[in-house]
DNA sequence: GTCTATATTCTGATAGAC
DNA sequence: GTCTATCAGAATATAGAC
């Protein structure tokens, strides 16, 4: 029977996600993480080199989580049904993990650690390729991803006003898909 | 001949824009604004109630500037030519005023002071309406705006990787317009 | 309208005891 | 691995002299 440590690399990541989702990025500090773990801020430096290392790890967590949600949604589906399911999963993830999502698409990431980010890009590229008939159709993937990100970003920022998006997602997605294929 | 004040509401806004464009939002502080004006931070409180009031004013500046750029681009053009010109102006503005642009589309704004923001939305709605034939086609405007914002946001965050967007803007815009009309 | 001086609070990070 | 203590700096904002 050992003396379990009060915290560890994974536990730190977990509470960091909770803080960011509940109170936003400004509330994430070494002190706030420590408080949530019942530990002093200085102790965290035994698990992560500095705050930047924690944020870097969070980026991987976020990209992997989105990748997995989209992969599950894609399932064994084919063609346009598959792509629509992936798009829906993308938007749902952004809604349910608003702060974490920012790490995937809105924040500039260190070019080193985009392991999960590259997998995500490949997944989108593959889904789009299945409907345009063009494998590696970068331009089409950029178009679709732009629409998806723009929609969740503007909606999340309340830019569609009190009246809301009024079916703009369905309309935009249908238009983009039709336009990319035709 | 009077003793001119070293600063004023407009001068403060001007240097605030410069700081934000040159060094980003984190660099904007009462101290940095004062430094750029040759004035102490405490003096600024005679012109703006607090930092939030400055940011609020910046939001109006940004929305108005984008509105004017798009209006000039639209000129007396009609239909799809007009809408494409507006879209191009939107992207160009975002490129040339990266930090200020975030205030238009990425940051949550106080619902009170969206004067210029509403004018911008009306302009987009009008441009889209001219090509879909539907005045007040909210869903279509949401779709197009989503694509435009998503594109500049992802591009600005470097999410398209070293290879770049590879014609994704033209492809996505054409697809969206075709899809919205057809 | 600007100044000095100050209050208050927060941040990331380190040294060294245990 | 966690602790205390501390550093060094940043931030917003206010009071009162000039």
For the sheet with most strands of chain A, the description reads: none
As a percent range, the share of helical residues of chain A equals: 55-70%
Give the largest interface.
Answer: A-B, 47 and 47 residues
H/E topology pattern of chain A: HHHHHHHH
Oligomer class: homodimer
- Identify the CATH class of the largest domain in chain A: Mainly Alpha
User: How would you name the CATH homologous superfamily of the largest domain in chain A?
Assistant: Tetracycline Repressor, domain 2
Distance between the termini of chain A: 66 Å
> How many structural domains can be distinguished in the coordinates of chain A?
2
Q: What is the overall pLDDT average of chain A? A: 94
Find the structural class of chain A using helix and strand composition: mainly alpha
Uncertain parts of chain A:
none
Quickly count the helices of chain A. Answer: 8
What is the tally of beta strands of chain A? 0
């Amino acid at each position: 029977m050992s003396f379990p440590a009060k915290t560890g690399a994974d536990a730190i990541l977990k509470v960091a996600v909770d803080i960011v989702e509940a109170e936003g990025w400004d509330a994430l500090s070494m002190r706030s993480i420590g408080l949530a773990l019942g530990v002093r801020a200085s102790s965290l430096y035994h698990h992560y080199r500095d705050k930047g290392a924690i944020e870097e790890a969070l980026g991987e967590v976020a990209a992997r989580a989105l990748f997995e949600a989209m992969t599950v949604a894609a399932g064994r589906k084919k063609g346009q049904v598959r792509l629509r399911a992936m798009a829906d999963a993308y938007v749902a993830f952004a809604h349910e993990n608003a702060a974490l999502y920012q790490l995937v698409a809105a924040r500039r990431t260190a070019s080193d650690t985009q392991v999960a980010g590259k997998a995500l890009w490949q997944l989108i590229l593959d889904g789009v390729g299945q409907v345009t008939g063009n494998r590696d159709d970068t331009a089409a993937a950029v178009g679709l991803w732009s629409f998806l990100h723009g929609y969740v970003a503007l909606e999340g920022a309340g830019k569609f006003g009190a009246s809301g998006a009024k079916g703009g997602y369905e309309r935009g997605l249908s238009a983009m898909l039709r336009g990319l294929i035709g």
